[in-house]
Amino acid sequence: MALALGIPCVSTKWVTHSCDQGYALDWEKYLIGPGPSVFLGAVPALVNLQLPILHRPAHHLRAVFDAREPLLILRDKSVVYVSSKAKPKSDWNETVKPILCASGATRLGFVETKG
């Protein structure tokens, strides 16, 4: 979810290596990339949404959220999610809805189709 929000995420190795050195190492070297999308059949992500976040003078929480502004591709849009899966409502609540909200959608709807 943090990647969808454009928040920089680091590997746990950053913590381990920093502890080994006795001080916080440069975390940008340990950034986790967007990786392949399971939902798109393991197609690799073409855009790293963290890039606008990284090129800022400060990494304060307010600055992180301000830098997300250009990433809100669904700003003020309405989205209807239609599914015929066996457990579509759980997919909607756990995965789809949070990502749509993180992308700026303001009106969301869910429709389950029968067979």
**Secondary structure tally: strands:** 4
Rg for CA atoms: 17 Å
Q: Strand sequence of the main sheet, in spatial order?
A: 1-2
Which band does the percent of strand residues land in? 5-15%
Give the uncertain stretches in residue-range form.
none
The string of secondary-structure elements, in order, is HEEHHEHE
Quaternary status of these chains?
Answer: single chain
Alpha-beta classification: alpha+beta
Assign a percent range to the helix content.
25-40%
Mean pLDDT: 73
General description of the model:
By secondary structure, the chain is an alpha+beta fold. The protein has 2 domains: 1-71, no CATH class; 73-115, no CATH class. 31% of the residues lie in helices and 14% in strands. It is built from 4 helices and 4 strands, in the order αββααβαβ. The longest helix is centred in the C-terminal third of the chain and has 15 residues, at 88-102. The two termini are 30 Å apart.
